[in-house]
Each structure stands twice: as C-alpha cells, then as structure tokens.
Amino acid sequence: MVQVAEESLDTLPKILRQRAQTLGDREVAMRVKDRGIWRRYTWKDYYEKVRYLAMGLVSLGLERGEKVLIIGENKPEWFWAELAAQCAGAVAVGVFTDCVAHEVKYYADNSDATFVVAHDQEQVDKVLEIKPQLPLLRKVIYWDPKGLWNYRDPDLISMETVLEMGRMYDESHPGLFDHLVDQGKPEDIAVICYTSGTTGMPKGAMLSHRWLVEGIREWSAVDGWNRPGMEYLSFIPPAWATEQGLGIAGGIVAGLRVNFPEEPETVQENIREIGPEILFYGARLWESVNSMVQAKILDSTRLRRWIYNKCLSVGLKVADRRIQKKPLGPFWKLLWWLAYQGCFRPLRDRLGLSRARVVYSAGGALSPEIIRYFLALGIEIKLFYGSTEMGVVSIPRPGEIRPETSGRPMPWVDVKISEDGEILVKSRFMYSGYYKNPEATAAKLRDGYYCSGDFGYIDEEGHLIVIDRMEDLKPLSGGRKFSPQYIEVRLRFSPFIKDVLVVGGEERDFVAALVNIDLENVGRYAEANHIPYTTFADLSQKEKVIQLVREEIRRVNRTLPEHARVVRFVNLHKEFDPDEAELTRTRKIRRSFVEERYRDLIEAIYAGKDRLTVEAVVRYRDGRQGIVSTVIFVNDV
Amino acid sequence: MNPAPSNGLSPKKILEVRGLWLQFGGLQVLTNVDLHVLDGEILAVIGPNGAGKTSLLNCINGFYRAQKGSILFLGKPIHRLKPHKIAELGIARTFQNIELYSGLDVLDNLMAARHIHMKRGALAGAIFFGPARREEVSHRKVVEDIIDLLELEPVRKKIVGTLPYGVRKRVELGRALAMEPKLLLLDEPMAGMNVEEKEDMARFILDVSELRRTPMIIVEHDMEVIMDIAHRAVVLDFGNKIAEGTPREIVKDPRVIKAYLGEEEEAEGGTSG
C-alpha cells in the first residue's frame, strides 16, 4: 500500500498528501458532531480542505517561516489551519481558548504571528481588540460565523472565503502546492507550544516535524496504537503538545480516526457515542470521573450500592494481584468475570470507556488510588512522564502498571538522576529550543542533558518515579523535606475535596492545608444530613463539614511519614479560580501566588488562632464596591 | 447604540395596532393604544407592573378580544381571528411564566413547534416512510439550526422540567423561533434571571435579530438590558401610551421617569441609555 518510501514522508503535510492519495474517499479521517449528527471527513476531504486553505493563505501573502496563531475549541478547522500553515512552510502557534485578550496579545506578539485563525465571535472579539497593537498581523480568519454577520473589519475574513480563494489560486497556480509541500524538511519547525507557565511568562517551545512524525511513529508502535482507524476523541487543547502528538500527528502519522465533540460541555455524552479506543484524560478528569461515579453510587439504591461495593472489592483484589504480578488463578478469574459482567461493563459503557484500550494520563500527578480504582474496572491508565520540551520520557508498558511509577523510559530516551535527585533527560525527540530565547534554552541544558526540574528516582526494576517539582519540595523547621503536591493529590481523591494547597516552610514546624470543598458532593452530603446552608462560603464553615474534611485528612495522614502529616487546616470560603490567576489554564495550582494571596490565613494557622475574618471586595455592575466578610475557622486535625 | 434597521428602503410596517381599547368589567386595561412594528425592528414595550404590557401581547396573538380598535398584521386585520389562526399567520410568542411541555425533552419541544409547518397527516406520520420521513428530517434540520444558534446542544436530550430556569427561558425562545415566525412576541424574556443570564439572553435576541431580521416586540419590566438592544420603545402606564421613541429619548423623558421609575429613583434608570 505504501508506494513512497517512509524516509521521504518526513513532514505532516507529506504524509497527509500520501494518505489522501492512497485512501482517498474510502476511509474516514475525522468525524465531528454538528447539528446533532456525526459528520464525516474522508482523507480526501481532509486533504482538500488543507490544500485550499493553504493556497488561500499563500494568496493572502503567507510566507515560509511565518507564524499562524490558532485559537479555538477542538474542531476539524483547527487541524486544517495547522496543516495548511505547515503546507505553506509556516508554523502553527496554538493558544488556549480561555486566554483573555492581553494573554492572546502576548502570544501573538512573542511569536510574531502574521495571521490569526480564530474559532468564533468570542475569540474574534479578543483578537480585534488587540489588533491595533500588533503591527505584524495581517488577517484574522474565523470559521464559525455566528454573531459575526455585521462585523465590518476589513482584515476579518471567513474561512469559507479563504477556502474559495485558495481553490481558485490553486487552479491558477498548478504545481505550486506540491512544490511548497516538497520543500518541507523534517527539521523545520511545525508548531510552537507555549509552556503552561507555572513559573514566569510562558515560553514558546518549538517542535519540529521530526518530533511529530518520527516521534509519533515510534511512540505509537511501542504502545500499539499504530493501527489505522482506531477511534480517538479529541478534546484536550491542541495548543498543548500532548494533543499535537496524539490528535494532530497521531491522526496523520498513526492514522487514528479523530472525533470531535459537539461542545466542550457535551464531551461525556459524545464519548459514549464514540467509545474511543485510545484516549487521554488529564489527572483532574480521571479524578472527576471517579468522584462522579462515587457520588452517583451514593445517590443510588441500597441494592445497587451493595452490588457495586462487592464487585469493586473483587476488582481491587484482582488489581492488586496484577500490580504485584501474582498469577490470578481460576477462582479470581471467575469472580472478576462476574464482577465485570455484572457491574464494570455497564459502568464502563456509561463512562464511554467500554472500548478503551490505550489510556493515558499526565500533567499533574495522579493519585495511585485512582490508578488502582480504574485498574479494578479493567482499565490500565498509563501515567506517562514527559513535557513539551522533553517529549515523552517514560510510559508504563502493558501489564506493567504500578500506581506509583511512570513506567520505564522509552527506547529513544536516556534518563539519569543528578546528585540532588533531579531527573535529567537526553532524547532523540526533544524540542528545538524556545522561540527567540536561546538563553532560556541553554539554561535548561547540562552536559547535553535536559534538566527537567523534577525530583524523582529510578527503582530497582528500572521504573521512573516522579515525586514533585524540585522547587516545590518544601522544607520544615527540622530540616526535613516534604512534597506538598504528593499530599495534595492524595487528599484530592476524596469526593469532598475539590482542591487543596498544602503549605509548610523552613520557619514552620508542621504541615497545614487550605481546602476547597467540592460544592456538589458536600452539598449533597449536607442535604442528606439536614444541614441548612446558603452559599459556598457558608457551607464550607459548617461544623459537620469541617468534621467531614477532618476525617478525610486523617485517612490520608495515616499513609504519610510522621513529619509530613497535616496538622491544621482551613476550609476556604471560595474556590480557586483560573480567572483570578490562582490556577493555570491547565488547572494546576499557582502555589506561590496562592500562598501570597492567603498569607493572612496561613499566618493565622501557624499563630495558633482558631478563627479569622476574611474580607473580600466585591464590585457591582454599576461600579460601586462593597465588602463581604466571612469568618473562617482554623481547625486542628 | 443600535442603528435602526433602515437600509435606504422605506421600512414596511409589519404590525399596526390602532386605538386598542380593552376592559375587563369595570377595569380599564388598555386605552386607545397605537403602535407599530417595522420590518427587522426590535420594539420594546416597557412600563411598571400592571401597565397592560402582557395584555397588549395577549390582544395581538388573540388570547384577548379588544372591545375597540384594530390590529393589522402585514396589512390584514387579525383582531377577530382565533389564536391558532394568528400563530399560523406567523406570529409566535413566549410567555412570562414559561409554557413548555415539561415532560418532553428540548428537541421534542422544538419539534412540536414545527407542527404548523407539517403537511403530512397522522397516518403518514405513523408509518413514517418516504415523504413523512423526509419531512421530519427537514424539520429536524431547522430545529438543529436553532439549537446551534441558542447553544442548546448540551441539553438537547434533557427533559425540560429538569432544566434550570434560565435555560428553559432559552428553550422557550427556541420554540417560538422554530415556528419561523414573521413577528416574535417576547413576554419578559429576562425576568428572574441573573445579570449573566440576562446578557446571554440579550446576545441571543440580537443574534436572532441580526441573522433572521425577525421583527420583535419585547415586553420587559426591567429597563436596563432591554434599552441596550431595542431600536425603539413604547412606554405604557395604566393602559395609556405615555411615550414613544428611541431608548435614548425614552430614558430622558420626565413622564417616563415619573411613571415608570417612581420619583425617588430618577437617577437609577438613566445609566443604561
């Protein structure tokens, strides 16, 4: 089937062209739910859209090496725009949809973008707002015209128009498209992914075609998702390197069939309709699926609860035997089969995981409890370790799932641990440096190894275990260190705790926690126990709720070394919010910022106070300001 | 802030109400009310509680029969027609206290509103083959476009009775749109909503107006949001029309401030103009 030698298929556009030539209309490349129906795009459709869009961009003046900023939800148009830019030799730059205008401006400015491809009115409004400050920006292309009918900006143009322009340009310039694609080289930069910026301003990590093409070819072969036509649901942001690897490159290089949900809110519904075979959930999503199941079970009838608990205990026993690599034996095999048929199969179907075979997680540590839980349902979550810069470093191989490890290093990776415990990585598939920032690039390299900034070790079986960020390890007054994140992850496993920040420090002699209760589950608990409450702030300070959280902390404390146990805690009066910069866009806590923000509270904890009044400024729509004060209790565990 | 939809052509009067007079026994509800709606226009009818706003809508769509006066829709008198006839002519409305089939899902509620456009009989529908099936598909397409416009995708298959209030209001607007009306009557579409929901609803109403150019009468108690989106406003007070003009003129009108806002709160309403 492959007429062209693999070596010459060294960029994404070349492979796309080859797939369209060999598969044409016979195979579906993407599906998108629109107007309630799954619409299909064959490889030929995909290729034609990309081709015309590329020619349209070229006719508008796009040149080799320029940057095209793309901002939108996961939709085929996003993928077309990236591939079209790459066909023309340009570079795609992904931006998260929930970025506010000045953040978008930073990305556009920093990457020298000349074109922006934006999803809808919401994104277009942001871009038009900042356009006067971006002298390099030439055109803004949108694909969803809703609400934009009356916009009259001369530089605003619909994707439909650009496709049509491209089709005509292609007709009048035969051979130009192929010429442009053929000029592409594997070391060309394909995409710039901005790192999520837990520290400092985001930096643009450049990824080459070689990273996307060869990297994915080898990765998919190792993990067995190189069978074309495997179903994949695309919903992690394409601005993120992981989706670049799985959705964009995985779709083209490994031939995954990429499915796009209708709206971000309908993912759970759509995932059931697709039943993806390969999928990636962030750690938070696995946690929320788990707590959703727990909450629903709590709401269920007594009989169902009994069945679920019995089946789950069988599942967990089997999971533990698998983790310890003990043989199962016919007895446990039979019990597991019964539990699977009676409970796990319908449950997995409900969650859209009935066909899930290759299941990943990364980005923020995932609680071992969660991995064990899903293993009990027969789902092996592969918690891989990697980053935009390093690529994929290690992945647990099939049958080697152990909750606390990130598996063995990939064949193309060389991992070593520095003297102070930092993970150092050398890989054949690394990023090509930070855009316009060679100092930052150089700062990350030591003797040819990339310094990950992560603290971890390699166990006797060769598995990599990542504990935490180096700079996030916290000292206590006795000189001993602890990892706040390690504790937080385990606390978040509780259905009643949505988020938590664990604090300590050199001048402090114990560990304390700031807890965000999970409004939905705690609210349900309050209802069931006849606890009246008004707002989140009110609920969080109820005595019984505090006791509930206290029990959860005690449970986790039992698994921690004595010095790292949580001694005091508060239930916060509000949730951490990315709009207030307390969380990053990938929902990781911005530790130092949050610590600074709640400094009064933290000081109250260590000063031994038992309550503190917190005042928050509230701005009304008419510009008036008011002050809302809440009493927060400081509690001992 | 919205330019009136005058694109050079002289705008056509879609609806014309002349000298409308409505009494319930001794209670005078509407007194000689005159108003008209131009093509593509959003007309706000505002006024304090009990001013007769909803009664006016009820007269237009035939729920109430006025004692005097006439209502012309596209040049034809409709004030003697039954409500379902008026609906078939192309006047759709939403209600202050949501009137949906609360046991059906969103999709079915919207599909039900398509009945006035359905031509196949019950038998053909029951067999559901050939033309009846094709008809269903074409109606579904119209409905899906509305679902897309009003961002109802996440609740498409949800039972209406289980939905939050703000969403149900949106479904009701969708149901009215599904009739593909030539005139839309919205009775307090933003009542009981928080600020964010109101702004969303205002955006949807503007989207409908921009995309379909459907003329509308919006009855609203709360002036703030409505004054941002209406092209023109009529103010009722105890059944009398006391003012008419652009939102900017209306909010400055001393009679309006006195009647509508009460004298002590004069400063409040002026901010939105």
Can you give a write-up of this model?
Helix content of chain A is 39%, strand content 23%. In chain A, a hairpin with a 4-residue loop joins strand 18 and strand 19. The termini of chain A are far apart. Chain B has 273 residues and is of the alpha/beta class. Chain B has 11 helices and 10 strands. The longest helix of chain B has 19 residues. Chain B starts with 12 loop residues before the first strand and ends with a helix. The relative contact order of chain B is 0.17. At the A-B interface, loops of A face helix 5 and helix 7 of B.
SSE topology:
The complex is a heterodimer of chains A (637) and B (273).
Chain A: H1 12-23, E1 28-34, E2 37-42, H2 43-59, E3 67-71, H3 76-87, E4 91-95, H4 101-111, E5 113-118, H5 121-130, E6 139-142, E7 156-158, H6 159-172, H7 176-183, E8 189-194, E9 204-208, H8 209-223, E10 231-233, H9 241-254, E11 257-260, H10 267-274, E12 278-280, H11 283-299, H12 302-323, H13 329-350, E13 358-361, H14 368-376, E14 381-383, E15 385-387, E16 391-395, E17 408-409, E18 413-417, E19 422-427, H15 438-443, E20 445-446, E21 449-458, E22 464-469, E23 474-475, E24 481-482, H16 484-492, E25 497-503, E26 511-517, H17 519-528, H18 536-540, H19 543-557, E27 566-571, H20 591-597, H21 599-606, E28 611-619, E29 625-636
Parallel strand pairs in A: 1-11, 3-4, 3-5, 4-8, 5-6, 6-7, 10-11, 12-13, 13-14, 26-27
Antiparallel strand pairs in A: 1-2, 8-9, 15-16, 16-17, 18-19, 19-21, 20-21, 21-22, 23-24, 25-26, 27-29, 28-29
Helix pairs in contact in A: 1-2, 2-3, 2-6, 4-5, 8-9, 12-13, 12-14
Chain B: E1 13-24, E2 27-38, E3 42-46, H1 53-60, E4 68-73, E5 76-77, H2 83-89, E6 91-94, H3 106-112, H4 122-127, H5 131-149, H6 165-178, E7 183-187, H7 195-212, E8 216-220, H8 223-229, E9 232-237, E10 240-245, H9 247-252, H10 254-261, H11 266-269
Parallel strand pairs in B: 3-8, 3-9, 6-7, 7-8
Antiparallel strand pairs in B: 1-2, 1-4, 4-5, 9-10
Helix pairs in contact in B: 3-6
